[in-house]
Amino acid sequence: MWFAVAIVIVVALVVAFYHMFKSRGSNQKRISVKGQGVLITGCDTGFGHDLAKRLDALGFQVFAGCLEENGPGARELEKSCSDRLQVLQLNVTKEEQVDAVKRNIETVHQKTGCGLWAVINNAGIDSIGDIEFSPMELYRRVADVNLFGVVHVTKTFLPMIRKSKGRVINNTSVKGRISLPRISVYGITKYGIENFSDCLRLEMRKFGVKVVIVEPGEFGGVTGILRGDNLKRLQSDMENMWKQASAEVRQVYGRKYLESQFSGLDNASKTSPSSTRPVVDAFVDALTLENPKTRYLVDGGVGLVDKYCFYARLNSYLPTSWMDFLVDRWFNSMGISEIGS
Ligand SMILES: NC(=O)c1ccc[n+]([C@@H]2O[C@H](COP(=O)([O-])OP(=O)(O)OC[C@H]3O[C@@H](n4cnc5c(N)ncnc54)[C@H](OP(=O)(O)O)[C@@H]3O)[C@@H](O)[C@H]2O)c1
Q: Ligand 1 pocket check: which of 40, 43, 45, 193 to mutate, most ligand atoms within 8 Å of Cβ?
């Protein structure tokens, strides 16, 4: 019995490593899409910001959706990019802002004669916390941005994308491929976009539209997702969790346990690469390769492997009960010593 188990583990490890190395460096034909339009959401900071700069340098007409059109990220894009790039006010949860962006892009394209080649749904926010601590308001707030924002933006621009036989590219996460303790609020939105993207890909085949998913691993220290206002929001979410929890939940888990889940967030740079480049490269491949992959799982972290991506690869081959055993050993020990205190 144990011999068979060992064989399965070895085979799963070999296959996981094979896929990890195979995903590096494929030489495929690129299509010329110079001057075509690309809308990116969430360009104030992080992946979206760096991608907007890269695509501008490649000659695309970039429509950079920013949560704060007068914020420092937007100003920096205007300063450092060509005149083609347009910063547009875009909160993906606000219908009127999505509609205004659509009108703006239509007007530009009437003038230039170019089409909208791609929509890149990148905007997103993080969340942490046990299910018993996470209020419904938090589930709704995060899903509003990460999931319904993506659905709404995609539906709004699909007629333009169908016309250009272009692409919808969705930034999910490795956490859209693995389930871990304390990430359900974020995880359900990323699993949701994975499913939305898969359904859309199948529906769009007949129109020649490609749907691609980019799944970054651990890059938390190099983007804005765990910094500044986002870090403050996560800390204030934690205080709300404590305030709203029942006396019984407080007593069972304890304040120390809750705090331990949030400690170390400001140290994310220690376990994160120093550049967003691998993720930006994956977006460029998704956008310009004649035959892009359906999914780009992009390793981050530091050291030999990104443990999240490694788990995601194993997850495709190992039975759930085995994955539960491994996750329990690797991730569930976090903060467990504090439980009840
Ligand atoms: N970093 C990672 O390790 C990692 C890993 C896997 C997946 N991801 C995903 O990658 C995407 C980009 O995240 P990031 O890491 O680059 O973090 P980021 O630097 O915080 O970028 C997210 C961007 O989305 C914007 N945004 C927030 N709420 C919005 C809303 N309602 N409407 C429009 N824009 C909004 C943010 O604006 P503000 O700057 O004003 O907040 C920011 O510009 C997210 O979908 C995230 O889930 C990140």
A: 45
Q: What Cα–Cα distance (Å) separates residue 12 from each residue in 74, 205, 302?
A: 45, 32, 22
The answer on pLDDT for 27 being more than 60 is no
Distance (angstroms) between ligand 1 centre and the Cα of 145 equals 10
Q: What are 45-97's pLDDT values in tens digits? A: 999 999 999 999 999 999 999 999 999 999 999 999 999 999 999 999 999 99
End-to-end CA distance of the chain: 41
Class of domain 31-220+272-327 (CATH, top level): alpha beta
Neighbours of 56 (CB within 10 A): 20
Average pLDDT for residues 191-206, to the nearest whole number?
98
Beta carbons of 47 and 122 less than 8 angstroms apart: yes
Number of H helices, E strands in the chain: 13, 7
Pairing of strands 37-40, 116-121: parallel
Catalytic one among 139, 186, 257, 296? 186
Which two structure tokens, joined as six digits, stand for 321?
């009960």
Please list every protein residue whose CB sits less than 6 Å from any atom of ligand 1: 41-42, 44-48, 67-68, 90-93, 122-125, 145, 171, 173, 216, 218-220, 223-225, 230
Tell if the pTM clears 0.90, that is, is over it: yes
CB neighbour class for 114 (10 Å; exposed up to 12, middle 13-18, buried from 19):
middle
Residue 18 appears among annotated catalytic residues: no
Domain definitions of the chain by residue range: 31-220+272-327
